Amino acid sequence: MDEESQKEVALPGMLPGMIKNNMQKFLTINLGVLLLSVGVYFFKFPNNFSTGGVSGLAIILGRVIPSLSPATMMSVINIALLVIGFVFLSRDFGFWTTYCSLMFSFETWLLERIYPMARPFTDQPLLELCFAIMLPAVGSALLFNNDASSGGTDIVAMILKKYTGMQDIGKALLASDGLIALSSCLLFGMQTGLFSLLGLFLKAFVVDSVIESINLCKFFAIVTSKPQEINEYIIHELNHSSTVIDAMGAYSHAGRKVILIACRRGEAVRLRQKCRALDPQCFMFITNTSEIIGKGFRSI
């Protein structure tokens, strides 16, 4: 069978998997945008928590220009940045960045029409700050984990990286976000400003923690005298492969095999139980990892 025939045979079998993966990505990205919109509209806007980014800038400008609500101001800024992105970045400008940015602006605008917020839900600003950080952080983590973003200041970073060769874009954006948060001290009082600064620092840690939790997998190093039985389970039941290394016990000088395998958390529980059943004397090293690049996990 020639190469073209092999492609024709493989294509029908590949299509359902591709459609499923694309649909899962689409739904995950929309969930991320929804969490981002709910957190920003219901908790950041009413409390004037300006933790940087477009939403923080919209809160500041909304105070300077009272005729425009923060949701409307954010939509204007996002659309302006999208236009600038298309002008300066051309084909390098990502589809998902455009989609998420427009949806983010649309959803906050829609929430403003459906459920106007005249005041915060509660009189507990620290409680509201927790939701103002957690919901957008989880939403942003879902977007970043699917190679997407909500646009905004990320577009500025992409332009600076392309035309200036700056390497520390993150530091520049952190500095700008810090200035936005500090300005809230002048416009909304010291308490709101300090809450904004606290939210700015916590947001970065929460986003990283959520991404690591989503991608968390287990790495096994299994020292065993029954590698064939364990590998058969790994290949036929878990649909993974493994790496087998020759080893020798330092005390007993008995020959052993070390099986190296990475798997997801649910699979790890099953593998641990199976290894104990097949070889009660096996020795297992199990560690957490969130960066596994290769077939079956994340592509390079």
What does this structure look like?
By secondary structure, the chain is of the alpha+beta class. The chain contains 10 helices and 4 strands, in the order H-H-H-H-H-H-H-H-E-H-E-E-H-E. It has a 4-stranded antiparallel beta sheet with strand order 2-3-1-4. Strand 2 and strand 3 form a beta hairpin. The protein is elongated and about 80 Å long.
Layout: helices, strands, pairs:
Blueprint: H1 3-47, H2 53-64, H3 70-89, H4 95-114, H5 125-145, H6 153-164, H7 169-188, H8 190-214, E1 217-224, H9 227-236, E2 243-248, E3 255-264, H10 265-278, E4 283-289
Helix pairs in contact: 1-4, 1-5, 2-3, 2-7, 3-4, 3-6, 5-8, 6-7, 7-8, 9-10
Give a short overview.
The chain has 300 residues and is α+β, with helices and mostly antiparallel strands. The chain has helices spanning 3-47, 53-64, 70-89, 95-114, 125-145, 153-164, 169-188, 190-214, 227-236, 265-278, and strands at residues 217-224, 243-248, 255-264, 283-289.
Number of strands: 4
**What integer is the average pLDDT?**
83
Strand content range: 5-15%
Number of helices: 10
Alpha-beta content class:
alpha+beta
C-alpha geometry: elongated
Query: How far apart lie the N and C ends?
Result: 31 Å
Widest beta sheet: strand line-up: 2-3-1-4
**CA radius of gyration:** 25 Å
Share of helix, binned: 55-70%
The main sheet comes to: 4 strands, antiparallel
